[in-house]
Amino acid sequence: MFNTLRTRIARVASNQLIKTPQRGIKLHEYQAGALLSSYRVNIPLGEVAFTADEAHKIASGLPGGCVVKSQILGGGRGQGTFEDGYKGGVHLVKDAAGAKEIAGNMLGKRLITKQSGAEGLPVNSVYLVQKLNIDKELYLSITLDRAGGCPVFIYSPEGGMSIEDVAHDTPEKIFKLNVNPFTGPEVTDLMKAADHLGIPE
Predict the structure, then answer these.
(1) What residue spans define the domains of the chain?
(2) What CATH number is given for 139-197 in this structure?
(3) What element of type H or E holds 114?
């Protein structure tokens, strides 16, 4: 009887595992920006536009120009090429007229990048972000290390460019920090990361 009960429990458990939905979260940059902003993380001001006219209106409220960023679920946008040959999925513009023109060149077209495959990915929106004077750019991402069973920070002092190129050309500038999900990162690990990133004490 005990063996029969154990078999039934195992069968129910395995059925539950099969039925457990798999969830993947993919966010556009403007969605991630809204999420960060909701937690009071300082990010550049920006809004999403779905038409060239909306891009013009948003850019009018961003004095000093802005950055127009195509929104696809993939990296390498700045170095990408649109299906019609238009170069670059990220552009600096000086005014609202420039933002409207650039948005018109991007919206409704497919952007081909190193990550998109030959067919490219459709650009249905653009993110217009205030232009800032940048002293230093760093790279940081958080992903799951399935083998280690923990989150991992991937970071580099070489931000503001294709991180894939950095990894290929200078892999010694890419660092990883596994984080215990129960205790969080250790102070000593964070201090080592600060050294890697060239952040003063």
Answers:
(1) 29-130, 139-197
(2) 3.30.470.20
(3) none
